[in-house]
Amino acid sequence: MGRHPELAAEVSRILDRDLPFERVTVATFLDLSGIPDDIAKLKHFEAVTIDQQEGRLAGVTDTARRITGQPLQTVEDFIDEHRSLFELPYATKAA
User: Fold this and answer.
1) DSSP-assigned letters across all residues of 15-33
2) Beta carbons of 79 and 8 less than 8 angstroms apart
3) Burial status of residue 8 (CB atoms within 10 A of its CB: 0-12, 13-18, 19 or more)
4) pLDDT tens-digit series, residues 51-81
5) How far is CA 26 from CA 11, 53, 56, 67, in A?
6) Nearest one of 89, 64, 86 to 14, comparing CA atoms
7) Comparing 95 with 70, which gets the higher pLDDT?
8) DSSP state of 59
9) Predicted structure pTM score
10) Could you give the CA distance from residue 46 to residue 62 in angstroms, rounded to a whole number?
11) Exposed/middle/buried for residue 11 (C-beta within 10 Å: 0-12, 13-18, 19+)
12) CA nearest 15: which of 7, 23, 24?
């Protein structure tokens, strides 16, 4: 299934919110993102989904660090830096 469930669990922990992972189709994802008619993004995300399912995106490398010259940001650091973007009125506290 990939790392999406683990990412959802980590974000839930950091925000102290119940944010369960739910797999959706690419079309549903784009619709929820407000760009339902973007065919280029539809094709891109469909290709990425296939790559994920086939394990082509598995593993961690140091490529981004070598390109940027900086270590990658952790999920927690990213959320802390952009916390206001994650404060959603409909999210409920984790039990």
Assistant:
1) HTB--------HHHHHHHT
2) no
3) middle
4) 988 988 887 789 989 999 999 899 999 999 9
5) 21, 13, 18, 29
6) 86
7) 70
8) S
9) 0.68
10) 26
11) middle
12) 7
